[in-house]
Amino acid sequence: MTVFFTGDTHFGDHRTINIQKRPFASVAEMDTVLIERWNATVAPEDVVWHLGDVARRAADVPALLARLHGIKHLLRGNNDPDETAAATGWASVVDYAEIEVDGRRLVLCHYPFRSWNGQHKGALNLHGHSHGRLKPMPRQFDVGVDARDFAPVRLQQLLPPA
């Protein structure tokens, strides 16, 4: 089992193509690429932490989750209504989480933090929301698809080489 992180998929949202200048001619093309890259990266037994802003229409979320590999956890974003959070297919839904992966303490939230719990003790902040537009801070990583080639990423992909 491998743990992955992603966010800001905005499935079905034509506005995201324009606002974020995503390289897709249509919503159908964007959704197809996002699903293909997710499933090419994530195995059915893997864990995925989705750091918010899943889809334009909450009614589409259960069918999307059924098509996507992995055990999926949601950290709600500003575009995730109650219906998205209640969709069948989430293993958990929270606004904030602190977890450990590969011996590293992680602070997860849709929103990037200026400071976070354990920041000066090596904890990392993983977030979405900013679509790759924020200046990087030490130990802080945007895991949204716009910053990560439209696919979920492993923690090791975020860290500098040892």
Description:
By secondary structure, this protein is of the alpha/beta class. It is built from five helices and nine strands; from the N terminus they run E-H-H-E-H-E-H-E-E-E-E-E-E-H. Strands 4-3-2-1-9 form a five-stranded mixed beta sheet. A four-stranded mixed beta sheet has the order 5-6-7-8, with no helix packed on it. Helix 4 links the parallel strand 3 and strand 4 (90-94). 37% of the residues are buried. The model has no long low-confidence stretch (mean pLDDT 97).
List its salient traits.
single chain; 162 residues; alpha/beta; five-stranded mixed β-sheet; four-stranded mixed β-sheet; 24% strand; globular
Describe the secondary-structure layout.
Elements: E1 3-6, H1 14-19, H2 27-41, E2 47-50, H3 61-67, E3 71-75, H4 82-85, E4 90-94, E5 96-101, E6 104-109, E7 124-127, E8 140-142, E9 153-154, H5 155-158
Q: What is the gist of this entry?
A:
With 162 residues, the protein is α/β, with parallel strands linked by helices. It is built from five helices and nine strands, in the order βααβαβαββββββα.
Low-confidence stretches: none
Strand order, main sheet: write it out.
4-3-2-1-9
Q: What is the overall silhouette? A: globular
The arrangement of helices and strands along the chain is EHHEHEHEEEEEEH
Portion in helices: 10-25%
Question: Strand pairing plus helix content: what structural class?
Answer: alpha/beta
- Overall average residue pLDDT: 97
User: Could you tell me the radius of gyration in angstroms?
Assistant: 15 Å
Number of strands: 9
Distance between the termini: 23 Å
β-sheet strand percentage: 15-25%
| Number of continuous helical runs | 5
Q: Main beta sheet, described?
A: 5 strands, mixed
